[in-house]
Amino acid sequence: MVHLEVVTMTDRYEVIVVGGGAAGLSAALVLGRSRRRALVVDAGAPRNAPAAHMQGYLSRDGMPPAEFLAAGRAEIAAYGVELVEDRVVDVARDGEDFAVELAGGRTVRAGRLIVATGLKDELPAVPGVAGRFGRDVLHCPFCHGWEVRDRPFGVLARNPMSVHQALMVSGWSKDVTLFLHTVAEEELSDDDLRRLAAAGVKVVPGEVARLVVEDDRLTGVELADGTVHERSVVFVSPRPLPRTGLLERLGAELRETPFGAYPVVDETGRTTVPGVWAAGNAVGFAEQVVHAASGGYRAAAAIVGDLIMTSLDTAARD
Ligand SMILES: Cc1cc2nc3c(=O)[nH]c(=O)nc-3n(C[C@H](O)[C@H](O)[C@H](O)COP(=O)(O)OP(=O)(O)OC[C@H]3O[C@@H](n4cnc5c(N)ncnc54)[C@H](O)[C@@H]3O)c2cc1C
User: Fold this and answer.
1) How far apart are CA 246 and CA 278, in angstroms?
2) Which of 73, 117, 248 has most ligand 1 atoms within 8 Å of CB, for mutation?
3) I want to staple 210 with a disulfide (CB 3.0 to 4.6 A). Which of 88, 127, 190, 224 is the partner?
């Protein structure tokens, strides 16, 4: 028997999920299991793509990120949720619906949206940082600390808050050097200095010129004066750039934080725009994979309740 694969490409869905990372796929799974007609649009660039392994997700600890997402895609497909690899470039109200424009030229519509577009990490412009990110240039001790424990750590300061990162990573290695880079020594408070001393963190002033990489391994941090400090791991603080463009187009209220502007949401991820929810790193920079998946679940469950009550109210009125 010849099996023909049928690809459905109709235009109207009950829910469109923008972004198919942990948050978006988790939402899609709940929507599919709730018998909702849903579409995921995913541009295919999850935040943790530079890392070989995903840590700290119970039962999936150490799984490659791509494998995790492939499993999620297979699970949502089993419940009839469609996924299209494309990028949403615009979104607008269209009567009761939202019209969602894809880069590929298609326009799709839905009465509810989940924005799960994640965020972008803007790395410090120090030579060597971008090429090693997710390998031996790291941002998060919870994601990578265990794997590099007890090695000589450097911390590349971005601002005085980098002191906090240096103190945190001292929980994974007792050999930590904080490179002040663009931060002046006077910017450190007495509390900072006291805690750094108590943690045994060495503080090195001076601009960092580059990371030294030999045989595909980070080996040191070179200062502008040519001094090289041997280090095999460097922690950095990328500047989170939330992807709020689509939410702003819809008029969602944002809240400023020291880590960027994020949508105002309730405990289910409902934004201030009726019919629009957000989840994962789209609502906060500190959301790890397990939080993102949980946020997607909560948003989808709230939408399912909203759809059921709305249709019952309509039926009761008619
Ligand atoms: C190097 C690194 C390592 C990490 N390691 C870990 C770890 O070990 N454990 C852990 O718990 N967390 C880790 N994290 C954090 C983790 O990446 C995030 O918690 C997680 O990716 C958040 O999931 P999300 O679904 O919100 O966003 P993402 O996973 O970033 O997914 C968002 C998706 O939306 C898509 N998208 C964006 N805009 C559009 C658009 N306009 N149209 C369509 N699609 C769009 C993107 O392409 C992407 O596929 C790591 C982060 C980094 C940077």
Assistant:
1) 11
2) 117
3) 127
